[in-house]
Write a structure and sequence with these properties.
The chain is of the alpha/beta class. It has three domains: about 5-130, Rossmann fold (3-Layer(aba) Sandwich), CATH 3.40.50.720; about 130-215 and about 290-425, Dihydrodipicolinate Reductase, domain 2 (2-Layer Sandwich); about 215-280, no CATH class. About 35% of the residues lie in helices and about 20% in strands. The chain is built from 15 helices and 15 strands. It has helices spanning about 15-25, 40-50, 60-65, 80-90, 105-120, 135-145, 160-170, 180-185, 190-200, 250-255, 265-275, 330-340, 370-385, 395-415, 420-425; strands at about 5-10, 30-35, 55, 70-75, 95-100, 125, 150-160, 200-210, 295-300, 305-310, 315-325, 325-330, 340-345, 350-355, 415-420. The strands form two sheets. A nine-stranded mixed sheet has the order 14-13-12-11-7-10-9-8-15. A six-stranded parallel sheet has the order 3-2-1-4-5-6, with helices on both faces. Helix 5 (about 105-120) packs antiparallel against helix 14 (about 395-415), helix 6 packs parallel to helix 9 and helix 9 crosses helix 14 (about 395-415). The protein starts with a strand and ends in a 5-residue tail after the last helix. The structure holds nicotinamide-adenine-dinucleotide. The site of nicotinamide-adenine-dinucleotide has 26 residues, from helix 1. Nicotinamide-adenine-dinucleotide binds near residues 38, 59, 99, 126 and 367. This is Oxidoreductase, streptomycin biosynthesis protein (StrI-related protein). GO terms for molecular function: nucleotide binding. InterPro entries: Gfo/Idh/MocA-like_OxRdtase_C, Gfo/Idh/MocA-like_OxRdtase_N, Gfo/Idh/MocA_Oxidoreductases, NAD(P)-bd_dom_sf.
């Protein structure tokens, strides 16, 4: 079996996750190179490659100045850097695994799709939910016909209040202009799953949403810009940054230069870091402008309707699929209420079927086994003859990005967006 050679641009939280998983699948993958400005992160990746010939570079320009080094380039830098790296990697002859979102504006995303098509290259998008046992089971049930014809779907994603504050207020994705709208940054996963499950094209989108909570008007009286400057609300505030040294330590591995779980940073070091770090800021005094709640209504072919709610103020994902023969419910609420992951209830009698998805890698919380599922599948996906047959190809992923950008356009303009016209108006010029 010929191993797939992997190189990676950006060895932050996601890049290290994929390379860490690939390093445990040495029968499939050989990690040959990476580009990353942080010396600690690059060293970490070099160590886990177990490859004496591993080549490290300081940034994307340096790695692209080399001849082609690998079969697949993993692109795991921040959102705004993806497009340039994708286009350069395609021109250099790489196939690509790119983190979602593919890019921060629709024109550029379509440009990547067209470039991949022109060059006959493969671009797989990290829509990891497609690789979870939970959504695979839902897809299998939908395709079995047990639900009959699908009339409508409701989905929701509860980001979680502290997660929202960490990533979408203080963190990388708080400012729309520096990253992307909330639905693109966080929920393009959910829009992708929805498109996959219903298996037809979206026609129209309308959306409402707002940044209701994480803004100045909700700041405790006298709260300074940083907690470390002494906030009168003290530990009573659920977002007090000093929680990173206690109850919220689990967020540190995502942002600490290289988190060593065998040798966790002492509390004093965390507090010192908070004095300078964006994560030490008061959540009510940040520069964030992405929404903390949004609802999207969608009309698909055959007049199938769907709605999706993203909210900071819940945890986990839920799905309801209403079919002419039966209704499927699954996700966090069903699990809490019944212990099962999925329940199907007939429209005509009391018949009910329930399903538990393998708890080792299944479920619906977090990535629910999607990260290992994706890395596991990468080898076979890259071996497919037709790039369009890949599970989460750039070709299928454009649709969910299209809906996400259309929803943002609707939220801001107050108009219902016709998807075909929106697509046409976002076609790249060249
Ligand atoms: N698939 C998912 O579920 C999922 C989850 C979280 C984040 N993401 C996406 O993954 C991407 C990465 O997120 P992250 O949390 O790992 O971010 P991160 O900030 O932890 O990692 C990005 C890395 O890129 C490096 N970098 C910066 N400039 C560079 C350059 N010129 N060349 C090479 N490397 C450079 C940074 O030093 C950093 O280590 C983002 O696009 C994000 O939206 C996807």
């Amino acid at each position: 079996m010929k191993k797939l050679k992997l190189a990676c641009i950006g060895c932050g939280s996601r890049g290290r996750t994929y390379l860490g998983l690939a390093s445990k699948m040495a029968q499939y993958y050989e990690i040959v190179a990476a580009a990353e400005p942080s010396k600690e992160r690059l060293e970490h990746v070099k160590n886990l490659s177990h490859n004496p010939d591993f080549q490290g570079f300081e940034n994307d320009d340096e790695i692209f100045a080399q001849p082609k080094l690998a079969d697949v380039m993993i692109i795991a830098t921040q959102d705004s850097m993806h497009i340039k790296s994708c286009l350069t990697a395609l021109e250099k002859g790489y196939d690509i695994l790119v983190e979602k979102p593919i890019g921060t504006n629709l024109k550029d995303i379509i440009k990547v799709e067209k470039c991949a098509e022109k060059l006959g290259r493969k671009v797989l998008v990290c829509h990891v939910l497609r690789y979870t046992p939970f959504y695979r089971k839902v897809k299998e049930l939908v395709e079995s016909g047990v639900l009959g014809d699908i009339a409508s779907v409701n989905m929701s994603e509860g980001v979680g209040a502290f997660h929202q504050s960490h990533s979408y207020v203080r963190g990388h994705w708080g400012v729309k202009e520096k990253s992307s709208p909330m639905l693109i940054a966080k929920s393009c996963h959910d829009l992708d799953i929805l498109c996959w499950l219903v298996g037809r094209s979206c026609k129209e989108v309308s959306s409402f949403g707002d940044l209701m909570h994480f803004n100045k008007k909700n700041a405790p009286e006298g709260a300074p810009a940083r907690y470390t400057d002494g906030c009168p609300a003290g530990i009573e505030c659920p977002y007090n940054a000093t929680r990173y040294a206690s109850s919220e330590r689990s967020w540190l591995p995502h942002v600490w230069p290289v988190y060593d779980e065998n040798n966790p940073a002492p509390d004093e070091d965390v507090i010192e870091w908070l004095k300078e770090s964006p994560w030490g800021r008061c959540v009510y005094h940040c520069d964030n402008n992405v929404v903390d709640h949004q609802v999207v209504n969608m009309l698909f072919e055959d007049n199938l309707t769907a709605s999706f709610t993203m909210t900071a103020f819940d945890h986990g994902r839920n799905i309801e699929i209403f079919g002419t023969k039966a209704c499927l419910r699954g996700g966090e609420l069903i699990k809490q209420a019944t212990g099962s992951d999925i329940i199907i209830k007939s429209q005509f009698d009391s018949e009910e079927s329930s399903y538990v998805v393998d708890p080792m890698v299944g479920g619906y919380g977090g990535h629910g086994g999607g990260d290992p599922g994706l890395v596991n599948a990468l080898y076979d996906e890259m071996g497919k003859d037709d790039p369009k047959d890949m599970y989460s190809s750039v070709h299928v992923s454009v649709q969910s990005h299209l809906i996400g950008f259309a929803a943002e356009e609707s939220r801001v303009s107050g108009n219902t967006i016709d998807i075909e016209s929106f697509y046409q108006s976002n076609l790249p010029n060249d």
